[in-house]
């Protein structure tokens, strides 16, 4: 499948300018998904290249690169009809309870090749699947913890920058909770699980959620301390 986007070729100095502007803008307003996406693309090429090479060495990873599935409503809508115990149903519940749409992700614009553009798109689109697998909320603590996992999995500079930006916005209680409970868990969880970018999630939607967690070495998030 072709990734439909208006790809923007950038010179090195332009990449640096976009990265700096996006970083500043994202720190000012962390809700700007477009700025966070631009920062990830302009600083993440080496990381995406490493992810691509890992995917090529995996059977499921190669299938993903060949078939280029998309986590969009047209292709994952059947998850809403699956039995309650399944991974797909858990994902549908996660999305529906928050009124999220799989189609809300901003397009990739700054990758140099179609292959890297697809890898970047895939990384962006599986974000909510990872939320589901790890049982993480979408509040500031949950998003920051997932960024730690994403960094351990992909080594994207943007992920660690997002964590730093998130911790700056924590109040004292949140910061203590994150550093004591969520950060060490996220480091361990990101390192222990399988290569999550090489998992063809759509093929496993009908499987039991707890079974796929065990199969992929997923450690669910710690319970919110009282």
TrEMBL record:
Subcellular localization is given as: Mitochondrion inner membrane
Give the membrane topology, semicolon-separated if more than one: Peripheral membrane protein
EC numbers: 4.1.1.130
**Cross-referenced InterPro entries, in alphabetical order?**
Coq4, Coq4_euk
UniProt cofactor(s): Zn(2+)
Q: Which UniProt keywords apply?
A: Lyase, Membrane, Metal-binding, Mitochondrion, Mitochondrion inner membrane, Ubiquinone, Ubiquinone biosynthesis, Zinc
* Binding residue positions for Zn(2+): 127-128, 131, 143
Pathway assigned to this chain's UniProt record: Cofactor biosynthesis; ubiquinone biosynthesis
Q: What is its main location?
A: mitochondrion
Q: Report which reactions are catalysed by this protein.
A: a 4-hydroxy-3-methoxy-5-(all-trans-polyprenyl)benzoate + H(+) = a 2-methoxy-6-(all-trans-polyprenyl)phenol + CO2
Function, as annotated, reads:
Lyase that catalyzes the C1-decarboxylation of 4-hydroxy-3-methoxy-5-(all-trans-polyprenyl)benzoic acid into 2-methoxy-6-(all-trans-polyprenyl)phenol during ubiquinone biosynthesis.
Q: How does it assemble?
A: Component of a multi-subunit COQ enzyme complex.
Please give the PANTHER family that the UniProt record associates with this protein.
UBIQUINONE BIOSYNTHESIS PROTEIN (PTHR12922), UBIQUINONE BIOSYNTHESIS PROTEIN COQ4 HOMOLOG, MITOCHONDRIAL (PTHR12922:SF7)
Q: Which family does it belong to?
A: Belongs to the COQ4 family.
Give the protein name, as stated in the record: Ubiquinone biosynthesis protein COQ4 homolog, mitochondrial
Q: Could you tell me which species this protein originates from?
A: Camelina sativa
């Amino acid at each position: 499948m072709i990734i439909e986007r208006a790809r923007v070729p950038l010179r090195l100095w332009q990449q640096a300018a976009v990265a700096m502007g996006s970083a500043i803008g994202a720190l000012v307003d962390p809700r700007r998904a477009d700025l966070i996406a631009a920062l990830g693309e302009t600083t993440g090429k080496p990381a995406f290249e490493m992810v691509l090479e890992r995917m090529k060495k995996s059977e499921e990873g190669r299938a993903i690169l060949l078939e280029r599935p998309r986590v969009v409503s047209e292709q994952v809508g059947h998850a809403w009809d699956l039995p309650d115990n399944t991974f797909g149903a858990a994902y549908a519940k996660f999305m529906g309870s928050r009124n999220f749409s799989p189609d809300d992700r901003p397009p990739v614009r700054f990758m140099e090749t179609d292959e890297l553009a697809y890898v970047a798109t895939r990384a962006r689109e599986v974000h909510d699947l990872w939320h589901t697998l790890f049982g993480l909320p979408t509040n500031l603590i949950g998003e920051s913890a997932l960024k730690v996992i994403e960094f351990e999995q992909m080594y994207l500079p943007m992920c660690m920058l997002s964590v730093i930006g998130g911790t700056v916005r924590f109040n004292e209680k949140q910061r203590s909770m994150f550093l004591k409970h969520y950060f060490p868990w996220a480091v361990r969880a990101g390192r222990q699980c399988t290569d999550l970018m090489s998992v063809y999630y759509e093929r496993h939607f009908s499987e039991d959620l707890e079974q796929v967690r065990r199969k992929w070495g997923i450690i669910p998030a710690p319970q919110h301390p009282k």
